[in-house]
Amino acid sequence: TGYVDKKATSLDEALAIIKESDTPVSVGLLVNAADVFSELVERNITPDVVTDQTSAHDPLNGYLPQGWSMSHAAEMRLQD
């Protein structure tokens, strides 16, 4: 759709993309926001824009508890 120029799977990767870019760049950070927001505060970083793309309407496949990976959540859905 053109909304995201680059994707990153860690905060450090996202920050490196931003730092290395000569022009404004939008970076999609593919992580659990609950795990990253405290790190942003600790580093004194304020993003220009934040949007949550989680399926909040879908409690089974939407939000994950802090510290859970996608694979752990999938495993828990099968067990419980």
Can you give me a brief rundown of this structure?
This protein has helices at residues 11-20, 33-42, 70-79, and strands at 6-8, 27-29.
- What's the domain count? 1
* Widest sheet: strand ordering: 1-2
DSSP E strands, number: 2
Measured as a percent range, the helix fraction is: 25-40%
Q: Give me the number of helical elements.
A: 3
Major beta sheet summary: 2 strands, parallel
Strand/helix succession? EHEHH
Mean pLDDT equals 86
Molecular shape: elongated
Keywords: Lyase
Enzyme class: lyase
GO molecular function, one term: urocanate hydratase activity
Protein name: Urocanate hydratase
Give a written overview of the molecule.
Residues 1-80 form the Urocanase Rossmann-like domain. Its EC number is 4.2.1.49. There is one protein chain. With 80 residues, the protein is mostly helical. The protein has helices at 11-20, 33-42, 70-79, and strands at residues 6-8, 27-29. It contains three helices and two strands; from the N terminus they run E-H-E-H-H. Strands 1-2 form a two-stranded parallel ribbon. The longest helix has 10 residues, at 11-20. The chain is elongated. The protein starts with 5 loop residues before the first strand and ends with a helix.
